[in-house]
Specification:
The complex is a heterodimer of chains A (296) and B (308). Chain A has 296 residues and is an all-alpha fold. Chain A contains 14 helices and no strands. With 308 residues, chain B is an all-alpha fold. Classes of the chains: A mainly alpha (296), B mainly alpha (308).
């Protein structure tokens, strides 16, 4: 069934040829399995290596790290985590990241449902053109510089509001919503309208529960983007009190760059929420990322 | 695309306006922060805009483009960055495509632990450049870092991110960070291949490589094309790992980084030359557009070959 590219079987022992014909499939099956595991092992080393080294480093004292930067730590010390937490402005970075992610994501998703629904249904004139507008956006030049000019001239540079404003759009997210809403039968609108259900109430209490999977996907996709954002945080925020955790980490690197144990602990603390999120919402994360890609 | 215009079913009178009224905030922000600024990039590229509030902005015609492409040493650096962007694209596209495909083929088998491997390969995708970059900075630390020790086993020596080959190490990290994404798209494609195709081919005596070549590969056409396009466009625009891993310095810069650095005062000489940076960003955009369209044409031919 599997289609691993195995070159024509190489005879390891020319003498082994005499094996009975009937055993051949299982034998080549086993060989394929072994070579598969070997390749997986190599790849896994490439993937876990950096992570393991990071975890090990985070548990070492500084002298221990300099003596042996790569090996296992001597003890499970979590001092670096508590110290890193206290050293930088970490709690405040974390709160900022949470504020940006939660506020911008909820606003974006709420507004988008009210954009996606009438477009998907054709309840507004020119809905086809509007959808096209979202699709072509994926091919337009980056908005970075005029965006900066705009925020600057609005007087929102280096403010929370200005930073959140940047995350109120996401064409891919909108396209995901539109496509999902199209799969909800129109008859539902008709019968709800017949029963005297108003527009807002329909969207709020009938449509939204029905499109929960799409909302979850878009929410997760959007939230991950904000949580991980580094560039916009570098461009728009100059005040340490406003930094999200990504930017804080880079600041931390600048100050404690040679203290790798603490830096490693800090990196792990930034990673952890993402990993936890991934474990619970894997399905939505993957579908969000890939559906965006395929549609785009 | 969108449904053909339909009558709004929900009530008459004032209610008729609700779809439009409620659509406006989302659409408004989209114009204000998305499409508008995107298009305005072209306009800014003909001005001497800076990042300083209140400073007058005036038209400079083609000067920015002129300077970007023809002005002595600076433009030589730009053309180097352009060339490096293309090299980065070729390397990342090829390697990431191959690694992603191999990973997908491996974890698509009925092997124990395949879900663990899948997760492992995919997780870097969701980590973001700050984590990805710092993780590898530790791994590639010259003098005592793990990679340093691995190199030592073979009697090799490298400065990694601090040395002349830093660019290629960024390629490695870029692939590490994003191959899982390529893998997931391939996996989704593989799961749509009907099992009886494999059975039929097996009955005909196809094994291993033949199965791949005659069944998997043609059936994967949509996934192959998607990945090919995404890898090209993505790698042309990728530069953020450079920011974390190497910082702005000659010898490693790619075009996207030049734009950012010129616009936001990261270069030694400049301070927020946003008109100039907008011109650079249009150059990059045209490059992405041209190569994206070329790739799309290739992909279209492939689709006709395999899907008809």
């Amino acid at each position: 069934m599997s289609a691993i590219a195995e070159p024509t079987p190489i005879e390891v022992h020319p003498g082994a040829k005499k094996s009975p014909n009937s055993a051949k499939p299982t034998q080549s099956g086993t060989r394929q399995k072994i070579s598969s595991y070997a390749m997986l092992g190599l790849l896994a080393a490439f993937y876990t290596g950096p992570l393991l080294v990071l975890i090990f480093a985070s548990m070492k004292t500084l002298p221990e790290f300099f003596k042996d930067p790569t090996g296992l730590p001597e003890s499970f010390a979590l001092d670096n985590f508590t110290e890193a937490w206290g050293l930088a402005n970490f709690p405040s970075y974390l709160v900022n990241s949470l504020i940006y992610t939660i506020v911008a994501t909820s606003l974006f998703v709420l507004m988008s449902v009210f954009v996606a629904f009438p477009i998907a249904r054709g309840y507004v004139k020119g809905s086809g053109a509007l959808l096209t507008l979202y699709v072509v956006a994926l091919f337009l030049p980056p908005a970075l510089i005029p965006q900066f000019q705009l925020i600057l001239n609005l007087g929102l540079f280096n403010t929370r509001t200005g930073y959140i404003l940047l995350f109120l759009i996401n064409p891919i997210g909108l396209i995901i919503l539109v496509n999902y809403i199209k799969s909800i039968p129109r008859e539902l609108d008709e019968s709800a309208a017949m029963d005297g259900c108003g527009y807002i109430r329909f969207v709020w209490s009938i449509l939204i529960p029905l499109i929960r999977p799409a909302i979850a996907t878009v929410t997760v996709l959007h939230a991950i983007g904000i949580w991980n954002e580094l560039i916009l945080a570098t461009v728009y925020l100059t005040n340490d009190d406003l930094y999200p955790i990504t930017r804080g980490l880079i600041v931390f690197e600048g100050v404690y760059g040679s203290d790798w144990p603490k830096l490693a602990a800090a990196v792990l603390m930034l990673m952890l929420p993402m990993l936890v999120l991934y474990m619970f919402l894997q399905r939505y994360i993957i579908s969000g990322l890939t559906s965006g890609a395929v549609k785009g | 695309m969108a449904a053909s215009p339909q009558k709004n079913l929900f009530g008459g009178g004032r209610q008729r306006l609700y779809p439009w009224l409620l659509l406006l905030p989302g659409l408004g922000f989209y114009f204000l922060i998305g499409v508008g600024p995107s298009l305005a990039t072209a306009i800014y590229s003909f001005t001497d805009a800076t990042g300083i509030r209140g400073l007058p902005i005036s038209w400079v015609g083609w000067d920015n483009y002129d300077e970007f492409i023809f002005a002595g040493a600076r433009s030589r650096d730009n053309l180097d960055a352009l060339q490096r962007t293309l090299i980065f694209m070729v390397l990342v596209t090829t390697i990431q495509f191959a690694v992603g495909l191999v990973m997908a083929l491996l974890v698509n088998q009925k092997l124990r632990g395949r879900l663990v491997f899948r997760t492992l390969f995919f997780v870097p995708v969701i980590l973001g450049v700050a984590v990805q970059g710092l993780m590898w900075k530790l791994f590639l630390r010259p003098g005592g870092g793990p990679m340093h020790e691995i190199f030592g086993l073979f009697g090799l020596e490298s400065q990694f991110l601090g040395g002349p080959n830093a660019f290629y190490w960024v390629v490695v990290v870029q692939v590490w960070a994003n191959a899982g994404f390529t893998m997931v798209i391939f996996l989704a494609g593989m799961q749509t291949v009907p099992a009886d195709l494999y059975e039929a081919a097996s009955v005909d005596g196809a094994v291993g490589w033949q199965l791949f070549k005659n069944v998997t590969w043609p059936q994967l056409t949509p996934a192959v094309n998607t990945n090919f396009l995404l890898n090209i466009v993505g790698s042309l625009q990728a530069w953020m790992l450079f920011l974390v891993l190497t910082g702005y310095r000659n010898g490693t810069n790619v075009l996207g980084y030049v734009v950012y650095a010129e616009a936001f005062g990261q270069t030694a000489a400049s301070s927020f030359r946003q008109g100039y940076a907008a011109a650079a960003s249009i150059v990059l955009f045209l490059l992405v557009l041209a190569l994206g369209m070329a790739a799309n044409a290739v992909v279209g031919r492939r689709e006709r070959k395999y899907m008809s």
